[in-house]
Structure formats: C-alpha cells, structure tokens
Amino acid sequence: MRGGGCDHRKPMLRGDHGRKMKVLNYGSLNMDYVYSVHHIVREGETLAAEKRGIFCGGKGLNQSIALARAGVPVYHAGAVGEDGGMLLQTCRKNGIDASLIRKTPGASGHAVIQVDQNGRNSIVLFGGGNRSQTKEYADEVLSRFGEGDILVLQNEINLLDYIIDRAWERKMFIALNPSPFNEAVQACDLKKVSLLLLNEIEGAQITGKTDPDEVLDALSSKYPSMQIVLTLGEKGSVYANGGRRVRQEVFQTQAVDTTAAGDTFTGFYLAGVVCGQSVEEALRTASKAASIAVSRPGAAASVPFMAEVSKGLGS
C-alpha cells in the first residue's frame, strides 16, 4: 500500500493463530503547558513568554494518537491523576481504547515546554500519575495480550524493565522509544526489544558513538536480531537490521513547534509495521507525517491524519 497506511478494518494477522494482531501502547499521558518565547531561557534569566497554550501530550499519548490517526486500532495503558478528564476525553475523541487507563490520587503527569521563535523546544517533566505504575497493574494489562501482539513503550513511566520482561515472556513484539534516556533504560534488557526507535542523541548516549553509522554498527553488533530506526533531525532517518541500511531524507517544511515530531514519526512508522508496509514505505510515510507535525503548534494537536499524509505524498 504505497504511501498510504493500512485499512483499519483489516489489520495484519498474527502468525499461525489467525487472530488479529493487537497494539498496546503502555505509556505516559501528560498535560503540556507550552510557552512561546523568543529564546530558550538561560540560567539565572527571567523571560517573558509571548503566549501560553495548554495541550494534551506525553510521548505515550502522542504516539497512540499518531497510531490511531494512521488508521491502526490501539489500546492505551497508563495512569492519570484526579485532573485527567481531558486526557481521557482526548483518547476517546481520537478513537484510542482507554479502557485500560486507571485513575490514581494526585496530579496527572505534566510538562512545562518552552518553544522558541525557530520552533526549537526545551521540556521539564513532572511524572505524576505516569510514575504510579505497579507490578500488579502491569500484569493485569499484559494478561490481555499475547504472542505476536505489539507493545509500544517509551521511558516516561516507571517499571519499564519489568514491563519489558513480562511482555517478552508473553512473546510480544516490543517496540521501544528510549526517551528520555537515563538509568531506567540502562536497567532494561534490550536484547528483548524487537524494534528500537531513537534519535541521534539517544544513540550517542547508549553507544558512546556520535557518527550515525557507528551508532548503528554498535547497536547491530550488540543486538543482531534487533531492528533499529535512528532519526537524525534535518539529515533524515536510517533503518538498520544486521548489515541492511535504508535511508530516508526529510521533507522540508517551516518548523513552528518540534515537540511531537519524533512521536509522530514513531507512531506512523509503527503503523507501517502493523500494516505490512516495506521499510522504505514506512520510513517515507513517517517522515512526511513528522514534517506536517512540526509545521503546527502543540503536541497531540499537531499530529496529522493519514489522509493528509497520503495527499502530501501524492497517493
């Protein structure tokens, strides 16, 4: 299906069982407070913001919305606080199955985001409900999924290593976006990860290398069965699996807000995986979707629909 995503009525079947594959995103849900500023505030500086916007976001929610808008049914698991009504409403509005999301005492996760006049951003995260995952809840969620189902993870929730271990035992296809990179990622057994989606900064943090090809060589050497997608900002993206490399250039656009660009790319690339697209097709579609997202303000609100992406690709 060239440039188009998949027919959501006919998701790819999983292996020999003949049952429709399910996609679970176990991830964060945040309220994003976005401040438009002339430049990113410096140490000791007080800076007046030109405007403020309040959006639903979090890497988990952003990626679920991207999957849903790409035409893939997705379950979302995670937690919101007592103030999480808007987050749940956003899930339902976008066709995300929110039945597994639980409410916890206190505040939802939230982020304070500065966006400068060139669309660059800096982010301060407060974990809130995202950091309230328990082993019992994780076990309950994962019990509903099995062999061949896709699990999408980021690093904005706690118990990441536990969730990976349990999902691997259930023979799920584990797709990890190790962002933000910290000791929680280092505690994970990445040999259990089927697909690693990361940017050049995270690649350097994991491998100690800065050259993209060296990053991919190091990861492929250590994890020979892992599929890897490395995003390189304005230099595009690269897929690696063993000795295979597939490169994709970016689609040029005027950047307004890059906050959800990576999450949009991840969601649309994973949609391509679910729909059986070739690597080349999935990378191209994901790159176009990300280029549309950066041209708009906000996080979840900036994610395009597949019809718009397909139109932009001329398909």
In short:
This protein is of the alpha/beta class.
Q: Please state the CA-atom Rg, rounded to the nearest Å.
A: 18 Å
Shape: globular
Tell me the number of helical segments per DSSP (H or I, 4 or more residues long). Answer: 10
In the sheet with the most strands, the strands line up as 6-3-11-12-13-14-15-16
Query: What is the number of beta strands?
Result: 16
Structural class: alpha/beta
Helix share bin: 25-40%
Order of helices and strands: EEEEEHEEHEEEHEHEHEHHEEEHHH
Describe the structure.
With 315 residues, the protein is of the alpha/beta class. It is built from ten helices and 16 strands. The strands form four sheets. An eight-stranded mixed sheet has the order 6-3-11-12-13-14-15-16, sandwiched between helices. Strands 5-4-9-10 form a four-stranded mixed sheet. The chain has a two-stranded antiparallel ribbon with strand order 1-2. The longest helix is centred in the last third of the chain and has 15 residues, at 279-293.
Main attributes?
315 residues, eight-stranded mixed beta sheet, four-stranded mixed beta sheet, 22% strand, globular
List the helices and strands and how they pair.
Blueprint: E1 13-14, E2 19-20, E3 23-26, E4 30-36, E5 51-57, H1 59-69, E6 75-77, E7 79-80, H2 85-93, E8 102-103, E9 109-115, E10 121-126, H3 135-142, E11 150-153, H4 160-169, E12 173-176, H5 183-186, E13 195-199, H6 200-207, H7 212-222, E14 227-231, E15 237-241, E16 244-248, H8 261-274, H9 279-293, H10 306-312
Parallel strand pairs: 3-6, 3-11, 4-9, 7-8, 11-12, 12-13, 13-14
Antiparallel strand pairs: 1-2, 4-5, 9-10, 14-15, 15-16
Helix pairs in contact: 1-8, 3-4, 6-7, 8-9, 9-10
